Amino acid sequence: MLSSPLPLLTVALAWALPATASPIAGPGPNSLHAAQAAFNNPFPHLVHPDGLHLAHEPTTPPPSELAGTTGAQERYDGHAVWRVNWHDMGDTAKEGILTLLETLNIDIWHMSAASIDIRVPPALTYIRKVLPSFTTYVPDVQALVDMTARDVAEDEPEGGWNVSSIDTPFHDAYHKVEAVYAFGDALKAAFPDIVEEYDIGTTAEGRTIRAWRAHLKAADGEPEHEELEFVIQAGQHAREWVAPSASVYFLHSLVLDATADPNSHAANLLRHFTFTIVPIVNPDGFEYSHDHSRMWRKNRQDVGGLFCKGLDLNSNWGHKFKAGRTACSDSYAGREPFESLETKAMAYYLINGTITDTPPRDHKVRAFVDLHSYGQLFMFPYAYSCADFPPDAENLMEAGLGVAKAMRQAQNGEGYQTGQACDLTFRSTGEAIDYVYGTGDTRWSYSAELRDTGTYGFMLPASLIRPTGDEVNAGLRYLAQFIYETDIDKP
Ligand SMILES: *[C@@H]1O[C@H](CO)[C@@H](O)[C@H](O)[C@H]1NC(C)=O
Ligand SMILES: *[C@@H]1O[C@H](CO)[C@@H](O)[C@H](O)[C@H]1NC(C)=O
Ligand SMILES: [Zn+2]
């Protein structure tokens, strides 16, 4: 179709490649040279000297940023998602592809050792020439965006959410930050002896990161295990909408089951554990993904870039942190660990307790699960490298396999893969699970990629919130039981 792709490539690269002198200057001869090199050599190993910070500032704002300033919704007409099969490539060749994708600002949806899913705008389809074989997974991204836009509930109902049944319409739709928080408050109001609310911290745009904790008083003669805290966080990545929804579903269902029957498994778990749910770790990004740019992943902090905002929270934690190179990248890690207010606040909470209203933590968090989408994976540390094998790997694997089985056996459950994060994903430093395990010394540390495996990706239909929630429910209850039997009540 393209007889001479090079001019197009040069145009596309004009705002993607480094302006060597200053971020404001247009692309110099060097970047044109690099563009040609990138085209002539599929894996050019474009060098990013670490000192050249924010070198990839575009000379015009990328669409995702324009959307915010004009109040418009960014559109993805003609964008497709390709699953590129890179199974046979070595790590160096993979790195070469990643560098090229980053240079072109191509959005990576999912990465595993076998394949990588990328969102390709119509102007960049020429990259097919330098990619190994691929299949089109999502032919029309905008159609999916339109679909989940209709899946967002407008407002909370008159008189607030009725939380007395899991059948509440809340779980049939996606919601914005305030509605999720209103639902948490309704839970607290309905179950004041069980559910508490805490503020974890404040974001760059002034939103509060809120947490809900649930615990039941021990029955007579039973030991109190309030120190067994199980923290579930969701929504580090803004566009992964099903994760916050599933975390709220889990909390709701646990509290309902426990209050319906004091002898239930749920009640038992809540007597022994305190479950802390932080449904939206990144409320600024989450809101931005609703209002301006459905594909938004990062937070909305000013990082000193000319046009591009935001840090990738799950690259910004302080264990084996690796500084980011370009502010416009969707996986921009920042200059320093905990540069993002959200990871800083969460780390403080996990290690020390809340800043505001709890006494300092005198015990470690026992378990931590970080919810994401998509891919159907349940993973344990480390993410940054497979050479670093956690001393608890066998236990983590054994519990993880049980979790995956419990998820599959849930009503309408799907298959989930279990393993070390470095094995199941590719190249990820500064992740939450690594920090919580490696620095925080929490032995049971996992991250989950919830549904699906790529058909809808981030735009999972709201009708699948419940089945996903049921899986999370089954998996996390299994995990808590496993931890209890392993750590406390050894058989
Ligand atoms: C809440 O829903 C339950 C059943 O789902 C119903 O019995 C109850 O009356 C409702 N409460 C209010 C205040 O509407
Ligand atoms: C925990 O509190 C100590 C003392 O205030 C502080 O130095 C440390 O940075 C905190 N840890 C985290 C992870 O924020
Ligand atoms: Zn994620």
Automatic annotation (TrEMBL):
Cofactor field: Zn(2+)
Active-site residues from the entry: 449
Domain Peptidase M14 intervals: 173-483
Primary localization: secreted
Signal peptide segment: 1-21
InterPro entries: Peptidase_M14 (IPR000834)
Protein localization: Secreted
Domain of life assignment: Eukaryota
Location of region: Disordered: 50-70
Keywords: Disulfide bond, Metal-binding, Secreted, Signal, Zinc
Entries under SMART domains matching the protein: Zn_pept (SM00631)
Database matches in Pfam families: Peptidase_M14
Family (UniProt): Belongs to the peptidase M14 family.
Role according to the record: Inactive carboxypeptidase that may play a role in cell wall organization and biogenesis.
PANTHER family, A to Z: INACTIVE METALLOCARBOXYPEPTIDASE ECM14, PROTEASE FAMILY M14 CARBOXYPEPTIDASE A,B
Name recorded for this polypeptide: Inactive metallocarboxypeptidase ECM14
